[in-house]
Specification:
2 copies of one chain form a homodimer. Chain A is of the alpha/beta class. Chain A is built from 13 helices and 12 strands. The structure holds a DNA duplex.
Chain lengths: 343, 343
DNA sequence: TTGTAAGCGTTATCAT
DNA sequence: ATGATAACGCTTACAA
């Protein structure tokens, strides 16, 4: 079974290749009968146009790329779903590009641009320590979504990029503020040890302590080793177990993701203590599980669907050379649930 | 900032295009100095080869495609992670193709084959009601992984496809057997309303009831509407709430995914009842949350990592024309946890 | 309405 | 070791 080409279809139908091309691409100037015959033949012989050849020739490809830092993270679930739907509604294709922990998202994006002639790119996750000079080499418009702190300024006539995200530092600060307001003086903090997201969260944590006149104690900070799959329940569980065993004094645990918080809750429960009576637990990011866990978990609900929606809209605005808001910072919502209480 | 081509690089360096090509592709027959100079120029001008042109010319592309039914499902998380790593270790690239609920995975695979010249395909999810004649049109080897019931027989000299999965029907049957052995006579069943996976689970459920001499009652069956995002906690929660309100008599709920089971647990808890004292709950698929939920949830642990690993291995065996086991059915493990008890 | 032919940016086969 | 040049499969002027 060999790959059949447009030439052979043309021969089969006794027409020229351009006629076949016209049939495929719904050009108007073609005899309906000829077109039908060609389409039938295509179906019969299972001809599929070679997209490499198409892309080589075409200037546009109607493809949007989503570049995701660690796609296996359950956090992206809904967002992916929304992006997929929105892009399809606009009759575009979506290609997903995973970025492993040790890969550079900008380099991958640069590749994609050439390779797939994508019309636009959405970055999901990462984008904290990117090389701006490399990023500027991107010709197509892009949106940094649900992560990152900033985008490069525009230099050309049209805006080329935008940021749609939450402000991690401020959000985390507000959570710690809340926990302080509950009367906690010693808040254990489970964060990522990297210099990107983890650093932002930590800054928020520190700022809040300072504001609330509390002392910062390095012993309360648990830094998850950067490496693959940080945001797992298991990780939250294990480090909380160690924390509990260590004998360090604290009354509350704040984890920067809900999955980590779930692990923390279970670790507390398994140690024979109760949440929130013995230890309070708070998470962040607002995944479903925080709402349905028992006890339900106090969290910062990030507007993930909104971010996804707005990212797509903004990207298409960029593509269509409309004016856009360069930096959209969407606020999260602190949701008090059963896992925390006033002391 | 225009896209620079190989021709311009050649001109810039005062060499022919083939020399540049040799430099890029690490061909041996090139003067190291020339090569260095070319590489420097490439770096300076940020030249990225056009992959469409490359793929057009090349016969191989070193790309593996993973075609996933509903990528937003958290179930795929680890598997995606493993696949990504394994494929990278073998110096191949991975492209992810989402299949929406209303799309046909085989058609998309056919497209991918042409478009990206992929060397092999792994199907994740779906593949229950595929059109075998279309599937046979795939030229590259493929593995149906973690889903599906069967693969087409081989016709050529070399095997072209394989199946690596669990037997849903048998697994579900064993879970219901277990629940019966606990003394449950009326087991509510939350399943997917589709004719694929949902049907397999239901068959297992029915078979078990029959075997255990219990009556099948349609009122106990909750069929989730096919449509997007079936396996959400929220879905499990909502339908359990309705079930509880309906007044139908039952002592146990079995849901075909752990996320659904989590929702069921919370619904029971919110109704003022306890798990497992008032209602037992069992899930299936073995996601982390089942282990860490409170109460932890009895489930069927599918060997997801094993399936992913074995799928990659098998795919590369197919690619390298080695003999493979056509149908690898890996068994799940029933894990008794806190959410069920003997009556 | 249709066919012919010139690219698109590569790689590979020849010569040199 | 290097440079022309012919594909690769398609789209699109341009001609007919």
């Amino acid at each position: 079974m060999e790959q059949i080409t447009i030439k052979e279809v043309a021969k089969l139908c006794g027409v020229g290749v351009s006629t076949v091309s016209r049939a495929i691409n719904n050009h108007p100037d073609i005899n309906p009968e000829t077109k039908q015959k060609i389409l039938d033949t295509i179906r019969e012989y299972n001809y599929v146009p070679n997209n490499s050849a198409r892309n080589l020739k075409r200037t546009d490809s109607n493809t949007i790329a989503v570049v995701i830092k660690e796609i296996s993270n359950s956090y992206w679930g809904v967002m992916l779903h929304v992006l997929e739907r929105e892009v399809r509604d606009r009759k575009y294709c979506l290609v997903l590009q995973n970025v492993a922990d040790d890969e550079d998202e900008v380099e991958l994006a640069l590749q994609l641009e050439k390779e797939k002639k994508v019309k636009g790119i959405i970055f999901l996750g990462g984008m904290y320590n990117y090389d701006e000079s490399r990023l500027r080499m991107l010709i197509v418009p892009y949106v940094i979504s649900g992560s990152g702190k900033t985008v490069p300024e525009d230099t050309g006539t049209y805006p080329k990029s935008a940021l749609v995200t939450t402000d991690t530092e401020i959000e985390s600060q507000s959570m710690v503020d809340y926990l302080c307001s509950c009367g906690h003086k010693r808040i254990a903090f489970i964060t990522s040890g990297d210099e990107g997201l983890g650093r932002c969260h930590l800054n928020g944590y520190k700022r809040s302590l300072e504001k609330n006149g509390l002392e910062y104690d390095e012993k309360l900070i648990i830094r998850l080793k950067p490496g693959k799959r940080i945001y797992t329940i298991e990780n939250g569980y294990n480090c909380t177990c160690e924390l509990l065993k260590s004998g360090v004094d604290f009354s509350c645990i704040y984890a920067i993701s809900d999955t980590l918080a779930v692990g923390a809750c279970r670790a507390v429960i398994d140690s024979g203590k109760r949440v929130p009576e013995d230890y309070c637990v708070a998470g962040a990011d607002g995944q479903d599980i925080a709402e349905y866990y028992h006890p339900s978990i106090t969290t910062l609900k990030y507007p993930r669907v909104e971010i996804a929606l707005q990212s797509v809209r903004t990207l298409f605005d960029l593509i269509n050379r409309k004016k856009v808001v360069k930096r959209q910072i969407l606020g999260g919502t602190l949701i008090e649930r059963e896992s925390t209480r006033k002391l």
